[in-house]
């Protein structure tokens, strides 16, 4: 219940609209007939490239729905979607600088990030975990005392894993990498004892790995990761246009089709995610 209340409070904060609303992004989209969307590769099943080099995944599909919804809201006969591949390290700067109009991957909404960009309604709720080799004797975070953990630099996972280790007086070495592939390579070569990231992303990594039985996840999560789409800060009209589309998907149940397409094989939505969908099914 504590986590469900947290989602509700976060929703109320994201729905507040500043008095001095800006309409810059919508007007730019209207004039150019183009919406520019950013994504990151290597975050399957949320955001990655398919065999033809095109973006795909749960987050990408939600953004395609947003593009279609904004085209309808602006009453445009056509709207071109331009995709820009970003990195985990530059994704927020791309939104802040106007390089992209929205960032569609696995960005966790935090208060410090909200000082740089705005966020949409919550699109997913995940937890931070650690992937280890199946023969490892590690089952909980406390088992990593004296061991090495890889984590992608510049992520909320890096910040939280350091805080969690310090808070529990666990003396583990944190090894930073730039990509998930780099973290998996260190784990596969036994140069680290674990690779920390979001649980669902780690599951996606394992499902895409031929030797699926080689790895296992911890029995506990060390953080809560609410995903939301990063948007230009202070542009309330654009944020409302984006949230209208997401709220409709949640309200009509269309979100279930998208979830099942990209995440269904992992299992049904968690109680917490189902609650997030329900709370955010806001009527017009």
Task: Describe this structure as you would to a colleague.
The protein is of the alpha/beta class and 284 residues long. It is 39% helix and 22% strand. It has helices at 2-15, 24-32, 58-73, 91-96, 156-167, 180-188, 199-207, 236-252, 254-263, 271-279; strands spanning 34-40, 48-49, 55-56, 80-86, 102-103, 118-133, 148-152, 173-177, 194-198, 215-217, 223-231. The strands form 3 sheets. Strands 6, 7, 8, 9, 10 and 11 form a 6-stranded mixed β-sheet that branches. The longest helix is centred in the C-terminal third of the chain and has 17 residues, at 236-252. The radius of gyration is 19 Å and the shape is elongated.
- Write the CATH homologous superfamily of the largest domain: Periplasmic binding protein-like II
Q: Give me the CATH fold name of the largest domain.
A: D-Maltodextrin-Binding Protein, domain 2
Q: Which CATH architecture of the largest domain?
A: 3-Layer(aba) Sandwich
Largest sheet: 6 strands, mixed
Mean pLDDT: 90
**Overall 3D shape:** elongated
Amino- and carboxy-terminal Cα gap: 27 Å
Classification by helices and strands: alpha/beta
Task: Indicate the low-confidence ranges by residue numbers.
Answer: 1-6, 12-22
Contiguous helical run count: 10
Over all CA atoms, what is the radius of gyration?
19 Å
Give the fraction of residues assigned to helices: 25-40%
In what range is the share of β-strand residues?
15-25%
N-to-C order of helices and strands: HHEEEHEHEEEHEHEHEEHHH
Q: Which class of the largest domain in CATH terms?
A: Alpha Beta
Overall tally of structural domains:
2
Counting DSSP E segments of at least 2 residues, the number of strands comes to: 11
């Amino acid at each position: 219940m504590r986590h469900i209340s947290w989602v509700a409070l976060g929703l109320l904060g994201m729905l507040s609209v500043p008095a001095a609303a800006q309409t810059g992004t919508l007007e730019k989209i209207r004039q150019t007939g183009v919406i520019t969307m950013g994504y990151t590769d290597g975050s399957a099943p949320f955001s990655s490239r398919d065999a033809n080099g095109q973006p795909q995944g749960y987050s990408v599909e939600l953004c395609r729905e947003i593009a279609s919804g904004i085209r309808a809201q602006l009453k445009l006969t056509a709207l071109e979607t331009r995709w820009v591949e970003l990195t985990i390290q530059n994704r927020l700067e791309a939104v802040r600088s106007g390089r992209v109009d929205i960032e569609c991957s696995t960005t966790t909404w935090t208060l410090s990030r909200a000082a740089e960009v705005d966020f949409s309604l919550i699109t997913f709720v995940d937890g931070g975990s650690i992937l280890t080799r199946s023969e490892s004797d590690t089952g909980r975070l406390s088992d990593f005392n004296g061991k090495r953990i890889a984590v992608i630099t510049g992520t909320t996972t890096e910040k939280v894993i350091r805080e969690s280790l310090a808070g529990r007086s666990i003396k583990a070495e944190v090894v930073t990498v730039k990509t998930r592939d780099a973290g998996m390579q260190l784990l596969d070569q036994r140069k680290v004892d674990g690779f920390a990231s979001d649980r669902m992303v780690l599951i996606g990594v394992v499902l895409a790995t031929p030797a699926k039985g080689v790895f296992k996840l911890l029995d506990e999560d060390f953080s809560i990761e609410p995903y939301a789409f990063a948007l230009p800060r202070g542009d309330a009209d654009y944020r409302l246009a984006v949230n209208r589309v997401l709220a409709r998907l949640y309200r009509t149940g269309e979100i279930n089709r998208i979830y099942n397409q990209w995440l269904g094989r992992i299992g049904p939505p968690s109680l917490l995610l189902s609650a997030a969908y329900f709370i955010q099914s806001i009527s017009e």
